[in-house]
Automatic annotation (TrEMBL):
This is ATP-binding protein. It comes from Amedibacillus dolichus. CDD domains: RecA-like_protease. Belongs to the AAA ATPase family. GO terms for molecular function: ATP binding.
Amino acid sequence: MKKKNVINLIKYYSERNDVSFKNEAYEIAKDFDNSGDYQLAEYIMALLTETNTFFPQMDSDDLNFFEKIDSSDNMLLLPDEITNELLGIVNAIERNIGINKFMFIGAPGTGKTEAVKHLSRILKRDVYMVDFASVIDSKLGQTQKNITSLFKEINSLNRPNQVIILFDEIDAIALDRTNQNDLREMGRATTSILKGLESINDNIVLIATTNLYEHFDKALIRRFDRVVNFNNYSEDDLMQIAEKLLDSYLTKLKLRNKDIRLFRKIMKLAPLPYPGDLQNLIKTSVAFSDPNDETDYFRRLYYSVTGEKPSDLRKLQSQKFTIREIEILTKISKSSVARELKGDHLDE
């Protein structure tokens, strides 16, 4: 952290400039994270996303189309490009100039829904997700009527500036009206959504997510103030996320055996998945490992990545693992590995 960060924090605090104060704090957290002080970075993020604040609740008896979702989960790690987009959204919302509708697009597991939860923590808003199962009806014309009622319900909220409305997987109800494969009923539903989005209260934040963006009606896309693409992960981004996830789970389980070089070699044996799947892969490998063997998670990780047990010494050699790393992966002593691979060059 630099002196200017401290000066800026004091300045923004004295000016009561919450947006700039938060941005500066995020930069400080990022700086600690880049320098390897992950715990301090996470602590700062936790302070910024503190949820022990009173939120006026929507009356559950009046909710026909919503369900409240828990936003207290840890945030799924995101690359800088997407994080900066989220900070921009926070800035736009807090400036209260009518920019309040956002679409998050990307493949499953890219962190779209987790990002909504994170925004709710920063903005201190509750998240209410539309239950499309209660909106879609088999009766002719009823879905359209339900959508009209849905937006009336949204616009009648008593305190609209304290909620986020989430249209998770909006493709369930809104597709291209000109698509010949689309049912006419769903085309009318899309038209109703267009009208609803036009009339929505400016104080309400509405976020839609989808992984079928290319099939959307262009008129629908234009109703949103910003489209954020969550497919923007480089291999370096994914590897950094993988390492932070590993560090987090090893810390939680108090496992001290961390070999980043070996971890990277294993992870590079297959294309890295998006963060959702990456999180599950690493979490289960560590959680299912033998508590009496602190290197067992490497073997489980290898199996999860390749679908094979690390038992073929020649194959492990071809994958550029050293004798010491092969010993960890196979539980065969280095001397035995060396004898088996006699005549082949391997680094220690």
